[in-house]
Request: fold
Amino acid sequence: MEISEIQQNLLRKLPSVDYMLEIVKTDEFFIDIPKSVIVDSIRRTIENVRNQIINKSGDITEKEISGILEITKIIESVKNIAFNILDPNLKRIVNATGVVVHTNLGRSLISSDAIEQLTLISSRYSNLEFNLETGKRGSRYSAVDEVICEITGAEASMVVNNNAAAVLLCLETISAGKEVIVSRGELVEIGGSFRIPDVMAKSGGILKEVGSTNRTHVRDYEGAIDNETGLLLKVHTSNYSIVGFTASVSLKDLVTLGKRYHIPVMEDLGSGTFIDFSRYGLVKEPTVQESVQAGVDIITFSGDKLLGGPQAGIIVGKKRIIDEIKKNPLTRALRIDKMTLAALENTLKLYRDEEKALNKIPTLKMLTMPFNVIEAKADQLGKMLESINDPRLEVMLLDLSSKTGGGSLPIMDLPSKCVGIRIRGMSANVIEKFMRNNMPPVIGRIEDDIFIMDLRTIQEDELSIIEKSIDCILKKG
Ligand SMILES: *Cc1c(COP(=O)(O)O)cnc(C)c1O
Reply:
């Protein structure tokens, strides 16, 4: 592109980095900002202005674009860039999707009690691996072992970084170099490239598929057992379900078969819950206690799905096998960190009193939230938005459903109350983008060109954030 004389003139007038550095010195905004960030922001601003000048068409008048060089505008831009550089990349957001255990949005919220404990343990020294009775080295797993066994009824337990790690570690310990029998209907893929066949390959186990996608019988497992068999594995199909002409082998039958042939039985429960959700009007998910009772040798599940704790993988089962797992050198690579451990201990202990757990663990609270409570929140948000009093804004209360998410309670929709937004002259896509770029971002969904926010996953103190952002979009739009 040819550059006109006017443009060349303007380019010559671009301030230098040194000049800008002198100017911003006197601005309070920059006092606590590292010099490297200021210099970077100035450079990027000057580059932007340069591009603006170059990209203007040649016949534009000097007056029309000289505003670009206004020093207050340039300083404003430096501030914006510096602010964005300093703003954390991992941000708090408002989850208006209605998906309670949303893997992309951080899965479970940690209860405030657990946060307190987490803060204390991470800001002070702790007995992480120190036995206060003997004064000698201790085990980090002892912080949660007792309570896990108490709640689940298991002989022994072990915790690692996440459930994927738990599955890998168990398979590697029990069945490396041996055959692992799995039903074809259970070779699941969880989001983020966790696939049972791939994890199996990495663990050194040899996958032996039995049955068909929709039907697997005890005789299928039995027919596949030979001298090479090291494990019978059952995987909870937590993010889908096979309906219609189906058959799968019950845990009890699988355990009986394993006992008869002296082959251990493992179950990857995926989500894992200590609570029978059917008692609260939700679809029944198998509980960890039921699997322990059925006599399964080794069970793995997540800490941050239905359990509502921090990211972790929990392994429970027979002491003999857990002891082997603890000796596996892989445990060091997959080990749980102290912040997680602090939050996990606190979360697990809430389960000693189910009512308390339902009340204090945000994931459980949101899942079992009575419809009228959600409705009241929706009414409140609706009124707040109505009071903005802008004729372009249309606010609707909608009966829709939320999802459990996180590969749990696969086909269940939870009836919920949503607030829908339409703004005259603005598409739902534009609203969605604006809300997503809000500080903090508000993540909702679009249906029929309406921007929809589900009140189940919106916290009480987040209503005003939404009100402000809608107000802001109307002022700008
Ligand atoms: C979610 C899930 C996993 C992985 O658990 P993470 O805690 O996310 O590592 C493994 N297996 C099943 C069946 C799952 O649902």
In short: The mean pLDDT is 93. The longest strand covers residues 393-405.
